[in-house]
Design a protein that fits this description.
about 60 residues; mainly beta; two-stranded antiparallel ribbon; about 0% helix; elongated
């Protein structure tokens, strides 16, 4: 069994493309949209795994 907390982010501004369209500029500002916990249960020798995502850890 393993647990990993994750955070969800959203961009504040849209990215800007260069005039030739090959370079994309992104701002490093973000909005935090919450958290979740991913749980992974595995039995490698038995050949099975189960993943579960929860909004809250408890």
């Amino acid at each position: 069994m393993d647990e990993k907390p994750v955070q969800f982010f959203a961009s504040v501004r849209k990215s800007i493309h260069s005039k030739d369209g090959q370079i994309e500029y992104e701002d490093n500002e973000y909005i935090r949209n919450g958290t979740a916990a991913i749980f992974l249960f595995t039995e490698p020798l038995g050949g099975w795994r189960y993943a579960d995502v929860q909004e809250h850890r408890t």
